[in-house]
Amino acid sequence: MTARRIPFLSLAPREDAPSVRSAIDRVIERGWFVLGPEVEAFEQEFAVASGANHAVGVGTGTDALALSLRALGISAGDEVITTPLSAAYSALAILMAGARPVFADIDPARLTIDPERVADAIGPRTRAILPVHLYGQAADMTAIAAVAARHHLAIVEDCCQAHLSTAAGRPVGSFGAAGAFSFYPTKNLGALGDGGAILTNDRALADRLRRLRNGGQTSRYHHQEPGINSRLDELQAAALRARLPFLPAWTARRRALAARYRSALAGSPIGLVPEQDPGHVYHLFVVRTNARADLQAHLAARGIETLIHYPVPIPRQPALAAADPRECPIATRACDEILSLPLYPALHDADVDTIAEAVHAFASPTAVS
User: Fold this and answer.
1) Exposed end of the chain (fewer CB within 10 Å): N or C?
2) Which ranges of 265-366 does DSSP label H, i.e. alpha helix?
3) Does pLDDT of 367 surpass 60?
4) What does 23-76 look like in DSSP terms, one character per residue?
5) Cβ atoms 81, 129 nearer than 8 A
6) Alpha-carbon span 284 to 152, nearest angstrom
7) What's the whole-number mean pLDDT along residues 345-351?
8) Residue 11, Cβ density class (10 Å: 0-12 exposed, 13-18 middle, ≥19 buried)
9) C-alpha separations of 308 from 193, 299, 351 in Å
10) 84-113, pLDDT tens digit by residue?
11) For residue 132, which of 74, 92, 79, 192 has the smallest C-alpha distance?
């Protein structure tokens, strides 16, 4: 048995606590709570940190995806190719834009969308590709960008799990027209509630996104086009500004913990999702086993909390039934095998060792590689 419970995640502020508290106090004292100086400053700072020309703060990562598609003119009758293995919000954002999600199966090792299957899924109504940088590891953007260029398709990157990640040395969010980020509290850069942002190098697109997030207004009470209400608020922007300087060190810590896991789990009765790109930022540390329920129970009995990201492939979600989604067998198999182990900057090295020891003690009938 473990000496203490090891939670899957801890969201309590630590070294960032004084900066976050000061930021909250600053907003309250100023008395400006929506689309003010904190949002503007965060947009500039996040764009610089992410290697982009523009950032547009919005209410959620889902809105960041949907608004990016809308700003590109994607609407009813259009199709957008995306992955079956992600949080369902990736596909729901396509529905929010009025388009139909089309699913292309995943690379069996990387677990991100397979560029060859993307090419196979392109049809006469395809307008865009929406790859997801899953668990902190970028999709194969070099190959995906080549497919998009060949077929004249837009790319909107789902970077919601990939803050500061790179693909082949290039920042995620820079390969297509836009990159969407979430600041949900569990993310590598998390707010104190919901929040999102869109990165783009296109000034005209950034200007349109700023209109769309604010009811389509060009100025107060003047609505040029139908927009929505999706505004990153000042309190969240201030908290994100306070935490952004810590993100490089937190990312380095995630990578160090992942490396420790990989070393400690060598020879264990489970499979590891390989690191295919050194730009991986380890939002999650995911392993594979065909005895997942038994392994999860084994770890729980030792005080180790685990989660599954994600147990149901998106095409099998009832909410997507009207889109007549195709089956994606590689993703379906992965959804039956994947398990996320604890990984967050405050996790101790000794906790990783304890978890690895518990995994080694698990008697699995067959390992998954």
Assistant:
1) N
2) 292-300, 329-337, 349-360
3) no
4) HHHHHHHHT--BSSHHHHHHHHHHHHHHT-SEEEEES-HHHHHHHHHHHTT--T
5) yes
6) 33
7) 97
8) exposed
9) 22, 13, 19
10) 999 999 999 999 999 999 999 999 999 999
11) 92
